[in-house]
Design brief:
It contains four helices and no strands. Helix 1 crosses helix 4. The longest helix is centred in the first third of the chain and has 14 residues. It has a domain of 51 residues. Helix content is 55%, strand content 0%. It is mainly α and 80 residues long.
Length: 80
């Protein structure tokens, strides 16, 4: 149960760092032609760094516990 809560907290925090896709109405309002841009997915190292960057003492977890939870979350939720 407690791990599920930790996964949820980390998932929400990491999701908040992802770019928000433009709405169809926003795309239609622009006059520039569509460009196919390839965006590289962040590496596991970058995702881990992002996860560790959101740790703070108010998480009520030690940094070592947070690190273990980050590793577990990134392993169990690879599309996060």
């Amino acid at each position: 149960m407690i791990h599920t809560i930790h996964y949820t907290i980390i998932a929400i925090a990491l999701a908040a760092t992802l770019p928000v896709p433009a709405l169809a109405a926003d795309k239609a309002a622009t006059s520039t032609p569509a460009v196919n841009v390839h965006v590289d997915e962040p590496s596991m190292k970058q995702r881990m760094a992002d996860c560790m960057a959101i740790w703070e003492p108010r998480t009520h977890m030690t940094k070592a516990e947070w690190r273990k939870t980050c590793v577990s979350s990134l392993k169990d939720l690879p599309n996060l």
